[in-house]
């Protein structure tokens, strides 16, 4: 386990498993699997609450929802790099999300760069087409996950094309497009097989 925060989730999950009053003798592997699953569930719930509260405080609930849906729809099947512990995970996610949301707001107000939007989405497509699903062991699972990822990418791209065909009338529509693009690029970045430098 990495970091005190990670231990807290693990200890809480272990405590809840113990409260269940199940005889785990001879089934330690099953108990560890249940404990890990519960730990991940607790972390997910806490992260959702934190992101929701952040959206309320910043008055950016809709933007955070759009970013999270786009990111999640790709990340769920594509896979990608993970942080060393839950704390770094949520910090990285929130940092990338805020960068996209506030960066997208600036671009929507000050720029109209359709060509870069197309280029960015194409770059996201290439990265996902090459690397999505590599976290799966079997080639069949990799193909299935890659197909799901590219279908999600296609849905986001169609929305962007529809918005651009209407000349992206209105700052809010442009803002939504930039958030979608930013979420796709952020997910693509964390999908790249960048290795940590050896010490």
The helix content, as a percent range, equals over 70%
Q: Compute the separation of the termini in Å.
A: 20 Å
Radius of gyration based on Cα positions: 20 Å
Kindly state the number of beta strands.
0
Mean pLDDT: 81
In terms of DSSP E residues, the strand content is: under 5%
What does the largest sheet look like?
Answer: none
How many helices? The count is: 7
Outline the structure in words.
Helices cover 78% and strands 0% of the residues. By secondary structure, the chain is mostly helical. The protein folds into two domains: 1-58; 60-199, no CATH class. The protein starts with a helix and ends in an 8-residue tail after the last helix. The relative contact order is 0.13.
Brief summary:
This protein has 199 residues and is mostly helical. 78% of the residues lie in helices and 0% in strands. The chain is globular.
Question: Secondary structure elements and their pairing?
Answer:
Blueprint: H1 4-19, H2 28-58, H3 61-78, H4 86-110, H5 114-131, H6 139-165, H7 171-191
Helix pairs in contact: 1-2, 2-3, 3-4, 3-6, 3-7, 4-7, 5-6, 5-7, 6-7
Top keywords for this entry?
199 residues, mainly alpha, 7 helices
